[in-house]
Specification:
263 residues; Rossmann fold; seven-stranded mixed sheet
Length: 263
């Protein structure tokens, strides 16, 4: 029997039920994107992940390190922005703010290497209705991701909660066709009651993640990084026995109920 040190046991268990997850983020990152197709002799198909955030800086701040690692592992990664951040710059009209923040998204995605796309909702005025449910499901069906990361639903920011609910609904109505992971946003200030099931060591790419975040100049990002995001990464790193980590909750499901029909 292979001897397991206390340090290694703590790192793999991380004090939570990560080992019980059907498919953890670390296992996804460590798996070769080509391994299954090579073993079967079939042509390789690139794997895809979506990181869906309510605002232009959300994908980078909640999962920027994991995005970069997925890209390095050969995945296609798409940042999906629910809004264009229309309400995010004081003294600017919604149209002006959206134009500024769209350019910041482009700059951030240039750093990470991710592709980006915007949805039709408006910052500060997001809604849940049939049309918005359909729009999110349409994006999911069009992109056909294997993995989706979005906001944790218990959050003080209404846009974050709405984004999370729309993604959850698409997950159900797609027949649980992708692995759904929730990420935290400034826990204690926004995300609440967040208890991770999965961790990703982002130490090797933390600097690049922070560079991408800093592209969101209009959001006073140095203060947000120093006061919220970096301390959170270090705290999760302590839990996972590394310098910097991102934490997630993996929502697992079963076969889609019979009453669910694809739209």
């Amino acid at each position: 029997m292979k001897k397991v040190s206390r340090r290694n046991w703590l790192k793999t268990s991380a004090g939570v039920a990560a080992s019980a997850a059907a498919l953890s983020l670390p296992s996804i990152l460590n798996a070769s994107p080509l391994s299954s197709s090579i073993s079967s002799g079939k042509k390789s198909k690139k794997r895809k992940a979506l990181v869906i955030g309510a605002h232009p800086d959300d994908p980078e701040t909640i999962a920027g390190g994991t995005m970069i690692l997925l890209l390095q592992a050969g995945w296609d990664v798409v940042c999906v922005y629910l809004t264009r951040g229309e309400a995010g710059i004081k003294g600017k009209s919604g149209k002006e703010a959206a134009a500024i923040r769209e350019k910041e998204c482009q700059a951030a995605c240039k750093v990470t290497g991710a592709r980006y796309r915007f949805m039709s909702q408006v910052d500060g005025a997001t809604v849940i209705n049939k049309d918005k449910y359909d729009e999110m499901l349409s994006v999911i069906k069009e992109e056909k991701p294997e993995l989706v990361i979005t906001h944790w639903p218990i959050d003080t920011h209404r846009d974050h909660r709405i984004c999370s609910i729309l993604v959850y609904d698409a997950w159900r109505y797609s027949g649980y066709s992708f692995n759904l992971f929730y990420a935290e946003a400034m826990s204690g200030n926004q995300s609440m009651k967040f208890i991770p099931t999965d961790y990703v060591d982002i130490t090797s790419v933390a600097e690049k993640k922070h560079k991408a975040c800093l592209c969101h100049v209009s959001q006073e990002m140095p203060d947000l990084l120093n006061n919220w995001h970096i301390p959170m990464e270090k705290f999760r790193g302590m839990e996972y026995w590394c310098d910097y980590a991102e934490a997630f909750v993996h929502l697992t499901g079963h076969m889609a109920p019979s009453f669910v029909e694809m739209k």
